[in-house]
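call fold(seq) -> tokens
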Amino acid sequence: MRVVIQDNYEKMSLWAAHYIAGKIRAHMQARPFVLGLPTGSSPIGVYKELVRMNKAGELSFANVVTFNMDEYLGLPREHDQSYWYFMHDNLFDHLVDMKPENINILNGMAADPVAECARYEEKIASYGGIDLFMGGIGVDGHLAFNEPYTSLSSRTGVRDLTTDTRIVNSRFFGNDPGKVPAQALSVGIGTVTDSKEVLVLISGHNKARALAATVEGGVSQKWTCSALQMHNGAIIACDEAACGELTVDTYKYFLDIEKKERL
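ret:
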């Protein structure tokens, strides 16, 4: 596992965006570069920089296929809190050469949610898997909507959301947890860790405990983020604020070994 520590959220976002851009540019195969993407506040800075590079002619998305992590069950794509809406508002609508047919997002209005999840897994497999999956984690360490105690070998499926998650997300629903959907469709932990690389963004003091569990804790379904310890291509991009719960030796080790990557 790599842990790349940056001074603040802005520098963390720039580092992650340029890492992703470098991987897309270096992809010389005939098949598309397959990129997994998250929603939430963590990736917004990354998306802004990817859009800037794309509009400046520094990065093309013409040969990129994307798969999103999750979607609320029961929200139509036109709803301003659907993840389809979020992704188009923050990324896809601003890219000059992103092909709509290359955008894959779970359908929260599917008549058969279980079949929709199976279809999603099959489509990922049809591209030969995901080259790089970017993600963020919750304060309880959940990756996508894989809440604590979700199997670390789980695949894309229907997830029940915890009360805590609905309370946290209620800020987008008029601060009313009752308006937050009780279920979502989500890629599994196994889906994410099947990717060739996983790049997880962790920022802010409120994520410090989750970062420590990801890097230093034991592998456990209590902290689904800890599955990254078993992935040979896992990278954590974090800011100083998120490092408050790391031991001094761990913090110094990653600063030393990744010093060339510090912005």
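The CA atoms of residues 173 and 179 lie 6 Å apart.
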